[in-house]
Structure formats: structure tokens, C-alpha cells
Amino acid sequence: MTQTYANYTADDQAVWKLLVERQMAQLPGKASQAYLDGIKATGFRADRIPDFELDLNPRLTQLTGWRVSAVDGLIPNRTFFELMANRHFPATTWLRRRDQLDYLPEPDMFHDTFGHVPMLSNQAFCDFLAALSQIALRFVDHEEAIDMISRLYWYTVEFGLIEENDGLRIYGGGILSSVGETTYSLYSDQPRRLPYQVDTLLRTPYIIDHYQEQYFVIQSYDQLYHSVPEIEATLEGLLVS
């Protein structure tokens, strides 16, 4: 599939502008510095929906060797992990409507690109994604294993927090593309904020229809990448037990 850029209407561009400006107004002091640096490095603009081939991929390829690949919505596990193991990040090309600004049942292009692509400028994070995907391909036909890997992916790539020098910050794309959860994840007294622990993440179910009940906090992106052997070993141990 390819992104047919000419299909985006003037209203699509206006919705994109609204989404970006609304979210960028609150991300300083809340988003990870790696994400904020990535916004600049990957060339995101409020006044232009990103063109994967003209805007994003030339920059990403130079930065970390990754690319954005257009997909038609949700894709099978094998296809998803094969793309990421080969350093292609799957992204949908459709954008939410004005009446869907605050909630969607499935990810759209704003979530996939604005939420995730800036972090693809960070090498350690990218290496973690590729290595985790290679593990997933080993177990792609094992439903229980994929469920556990999905939990770890959810609580890191989608809803992860990181402790930085200036305090707790967000790096998970599911939070960074959500106006409400950006504030909730950091400041609400309702969710638990737990240290990143592989065994715990693999065992912890996640929520898809409301804000999370817990978030897991890493100390660095190197910590994520260096945990890959532990992920593989723990997964193997849980499947045997």
C-alpha cells in the first residue's frame, strides 16, 4: 500500500493542524526530551500532513535507518512484526474526522505518526523495537507468547513513561497523541506508576477502552534495549512453566 497524498482534503489538513497545535501546546514539560527532539528532527509541521516518502522517510533513514510504511489499518501480527524487524514502522494513512478528535476505536494516522514517529529518531529505542519484533517472530504462531509480547509493547511503546533529569516524562505514542491521557498519566493520583520490570509487564493485562490503571517507568532507552535478552529468556521460562 502507498500513501496517496493527493487524496487529503483541505479539511483533512485543517484537522491535522488542529490536532498538532492542540497537542504541542501541552507537551513541553510532559513529553520526553527524545520525543521533543524527534519532532524537530523528523520535520513535523502543524500546517502540513506529513508525506511519508517526501517528508518523513528521508529524515528517518538518515537518522536511524528506519522508514514509515503505509498500511491499511490494523494488520496481522506476522506482517506487523516483519515490518518492524526490518525497521519499517507501519502507519495508517486515514485521518480522524472532526467529531473524533478525542477518541477513536482504532489508531489513525495522527496516532501512528505524531504519536510514534518522533521516537524513531532515537537509536536505542529503535534498536529495542527491532529486537523485540525479532523475538515476536520466533513466537508468532504461539498465542500466549504474542499476548505477553503485546503487553510489554503496550506498556512501553504505547503507554510508557521515563524518568528524566527534570522529572517524569512521556514517551509512549498512545499517551502523546491523547490530550486527556497526557495530563492524566503524569498528574492524576489514580494510576500506579511502577518501575519497568520485564516479568511484571509480560504478566500484566492492559486496558483498551479507558485510561490505564498503571504505567511502567523506565530510566533510559538503553535500559529498554538492554532488557531484550531478559525479555526473551523470561518469555521462554513462562511458556515452559
Continuous helix count: 12
State the fourth-level CATH superfamily: Aromatic amino acid hydroxylase
How are the strands of the largest sheet arranged? 4-3-6-5
User: Structural class, please?
Assistant: alpha/beta
Strand content: 5-15%
Helix share, percent = 40-55%
Biggest β-sheet, characterized? 4 strands, mixed
- Write down the overall mean pLDDT: 95
Note the main attributes of this structure.
globular, four-stranded mixed sheet, 241 residues, two-stranded parallel sheet, Phenylalanine Hydroxylase, alpha/beta
Question: Can you describe this structure?
Answer:
The protein is α/β, with parallel strands linked by helices. The chain has one domain (5-240): Aromatic amino acid hydroxylase (Phenylalanine Hydroxylase, Orthogonal Bundle). The protein is 51% helix and 11% strand. It contains twelve helices and six strands. It has a four-stranded mixed sheet. Strands 1-2 form a two-stranded parallel sheet. α4 packs across α6. The longest helix is centred in the middle third of the chain and has 16 residues, at 123-138. The N and C termini lie far apart (41 Å). The model has no long low-confidence stretch (mean pLDDT 95).
